[in-house]
Amino acid sequence: MALLFKADVDRAGNWERALTSLAPDIELRIWPEAGDPAEIDYALVWKPPPGELKSYPNLKIIFSVGAGIDHLASDPELPRHIPLVRMVEPGLTAGMSEFVVMAVLYHHRFMIEYGLQRREETWEEISQIAAEDRTVGIMGLGVLGRDAAEKLKPFGFSLAGWSRSPKEVPGVTGYHGDDGLKAFLAATDILVCLLPLTAETANILNAETFAALPRGAAVINVARGGHQVEDDLLAALDSGQLSGATLDVFQEEPLPAGHPIWQHPRILMTPHVASMTIPRSAAKAVIDNIRRFEAGEPLTDVVDLEKGY
Length: 309
Ligand code: NDP
Ligand code: OXD
Known about the structure:
12 strands; binds oxalic acid
């Protein structure tokens, strides 16, 4: 039995240790040293070259190293009859919630304003706002959105969530579908995007969306760059409709040299690191699913390619 690994070469050693200690019976092959393609049963991948996955005739499961699978789903040659499993693992979830809490607090406690003051050597208090008087609205109430909401609860924020189908999350006011979007945005002071990138959600962070938020709202995008229309975001920041943004993802990554986002004083940016899959905990998620498959049990976290997530 062989598992092909094609992902971040820097951490291949960590993955190898984690996978082989849990499943010594599974032979690990690190791409491009795949050996005989017919011997590959499983593939664990992040951004494989387009068309690559169709070259393994006996592939049984494709595992994505990331939670988002948009880059795999957009491969026209993806073997769509093979189950595609996205990454759901506690390390990735915990890291994302840490980042979201950090960014929400950054905007809530006026760190953008104080950063601007500091540049001007200005010393000025801004009245604190109680957390309960701020609504954090999370777009996407899936694995990551729900955990972020749980981690924000102890601070006392008012919480809202927007999903495709209705969701009951205690302590979170739920909105759903296109019909629920305007009301969700109108209620949101700090918007967090944790949606998958699909045909429906592409460019959703646009001028119309920003205009539907209360004036001075902040936007945190930790999902995909394809969700944001960057010119609209810059215009909304420059007009004061938005007070600030935290961006971890960009339409083009790495962000091109000279792009206005690099220097914008109202943007906190990071290079697509809001969260990372942790090999130790992720290997367990992968091996558990392989064992389920071997036992003829249903797999968990299989992507619905029709929905795109
Ligand atoms: P899930 O699939 O668990 O959740 C997706 C959520 O989005 C669901 O609540 C779903 O609604 C909702 N949704 C999907 N389409 C729509 C739509 N058209 N309208 C309204 N709501 C919609 O995903 P995860 O929480 O695991 O991950 C979310 C994304 O985060 C990933 O796809 C990935 O792109 C990104 N990510 C980014 C990372 C980074 O470092 N920047 C790291 C990890 C992930 P419903 O519940 O009704 O199905
Ligand atoms: C993911 C990511 O989707 O890291 O997991 O972006």
